[in-house]
Amino acid sequence: xxxxxxxxxxxxxxxxxxxxxxxxxxxxxxxxxxxxxxxxxxxxxxxxxxxxxxxxxxxxxxxxxxxxxxxxxxxxxxxxxxxxxxxxxxxxxxxxxxxxxxxxxxxxxxxxxxxxxxxxxxxxxxxxxxxxxxxxxxxxxxxxxxxxxxxxxxxxxxxxxxxxxxxxxxxxxxxxxxxxxxxxxxxxxxxxxxxxxx
Length: 198
Description:
Elements: E1 3-10, E2 16-23, E3 36-49, E4 53-56, E5 62-65, E6 68-78, E7 89-95, E8 97-98, E9 104-105, H1 111-119, E10 141-150, E11 156-169, H2 173-194
Antiparallel strand pairs: 1-2, 3-6, 3-10, 4-5, 6-7, 8-9, 10-11
């Protein structure tokens, strides 16, 4: 969005000239587009929708949303660049999938399926009595990559999403390994410059 400020400037001949200054912005005007290689995130809110529903956009367009677990997610810790984008929020949907009979299911090999395995365990899919509660995901923390949202053709859109293939449990060996590598790289960087005389 452009912000326009109009000023009047006078020449030596007292003729007035209209000057328009345009404030330029690279802000997307909407959701933040994040690219974080490894982050600890927390699901702040989770809402499960089991029916298809029509979603109307501000521009008047609409689309049919598949059943999904709609989540508000907060970046707790940037594991690669500590401090950067920490506290940022994003929204992501973990969709149910249709099976061969046309029924909506919690598919094991999907974004939602991977989240379920990280939260509950892979055995959830083999247990006929296992239950799914959206409340179980609120406050849940895990490790993942956050990347800019794109459409099916790869065009970048407003917002960010969880890279579902990168999801891992928080507090595990992977989180510790990433944190240790970053600390080691920072220590090596400080050592490299400490010998330089100024």
